[in-house]
Amino acid sequence: MSILVVGSVGIDTIITPAGKAENVLGGSASHFSLAASFFGLVWLVGIVGTDFPKEHLESFRARGIDLEALDVVPGETFRWTGRYPEHFHGRDTLEIHLNVFKDFAPRLPESRRDPKIVFLANIDPELQLHVLSQIEKTRLVVGDTMNFWLATKRDRVIEAIKKMDVFLVNDEEARDLCATRSILEAGRKLQALGPKVVVIKMGEHGAALFHESSIFLAPAYPLTAIVDPTGAGDSFAGGFVGHLARVRQLTPLAFRRAVVYGSIMGSYNVVDFSAHRLLRLEKEEIDHRYREFEQLTRF
Ligand code: AMP
């Protein structure tokens, strides 16, 4: 099943308690696409400037990612600098330069207007809505957002959520959106906005899936050391959406397993800077970790 993703593709500088990585591959759509590419065909919709390193385009191509709708235009690529404090509690955005994203109006080629699954990665909600307006038929719309857009374009974020079948969100954003401390209440309130399925990601505490009236809880894979959490949410989404695309089913069981594949891809992403670990990942390692999850949760 084809997966279309629209999101940011950029260059990050990241400072964490484990060290610093300058000018590395970043962007929500980059992490998502690399993770999802282990499961199905990904069409990447985004924009970069002519300064975007060719090696990153090659990395996408090497994973079979379709770049037909990734515009390369004169100008500078999106840049983001972030810092994680001691113990990785929270994250500060030190710099954000939208650059070529400022005037981006994605236009999908005729041949890319009927994806089976659309993933609206973290990006300006206007762009998420703009892409949705061009999609002709799709089976499932999945989306994400981040605190930056909740603070600057809250109404448009809510507009986009209403159009989603599945909404993936982290715990702090869910609490903020729903004005509650309770994850359970937040999940139910978000479902009431429109999405049948809501996944609240709780970092090292795992993820909660709300599917119609049922709830499923999956742990996060236990790790001894985290290097860089950037893109964990997008990699989670890549595993989640990728699994649904691969099994071509939207059953309760498929959604539960999708959460586990999301946790697996997130866990691999955070042990190195940028998407470096995903770029070295082998399919067998995903299968191996899936079996470990089965052991971890069987009782
Ligand atoms: P995540 O850690 O899953 O929130 O994703 C982090 C990625 O999102 C980084 O690689 C950044 O390049 C990118 N990013 C940061 N801020 C924004 C923003 N406001 N809009 C779109 N992408 C962003």
Please tell me about this protein's structure.
There is one protein chain. This protein has helices spanning 28-36, 54-62, 125-134, 147-152, 154-162, 171-178, 183-193, 232-247, 252-269, 276-280, 283-297, and strands spanning 2-6, 10-16, 19-26, 41-49, 70-73, 78-83, 92-97, 117-120, 140-143, 166-170, 197-201, 207-211, 214-218. 39% of the residues lie in helices and 24% in strands. Strands 5-4-1-8-9-10-11-12-13 form a 9-stranded mixed sheet, with helices on both faces. It is α/β, with parallel strands linked by helices and 299 residues long. The relative contact order is 0.16. Strand 11 (197-201) and strand 12 (207-211) form a beta hairpin. The mean pLDDT is 95. The radius of gyration is 18 Å and the shape is globular. The longest helix is centred in the last third of the chain and has 18 residues, at 252-269. Residues 8, 10, 12, 26-28, 80, 96, 122-123, 146, 148, 230-234 line the site of adenosine monophosphate.
User: Ligands in the structure?
Assistant: adenosine monophosphate
Largest β sheet strand count, sense and barrel closure: 9 strands, mixed
Helix share of residues? Answer: 25-40%
Number of helices: 11
Strand segment count:
13
- Uncertain runs are none
Structural category:
alpha/beta
Arrangement of strands in the largest sheet: 5-4-1-8-9-10-11-12-13
What's the shape? globular
Relative strand content: 15-25%
- What is the H/E string? EEEHEHEEEEHEHHEHHEEEHHHH
Relevant terms:
single chain, 299 residues, alpha/beta, nine-stranded mixed β-sheet, four-stranded mixed β-sheet, 11 helices, 13 strands, 39% helix, 24% strand, globular, binds adenosine monophosphate
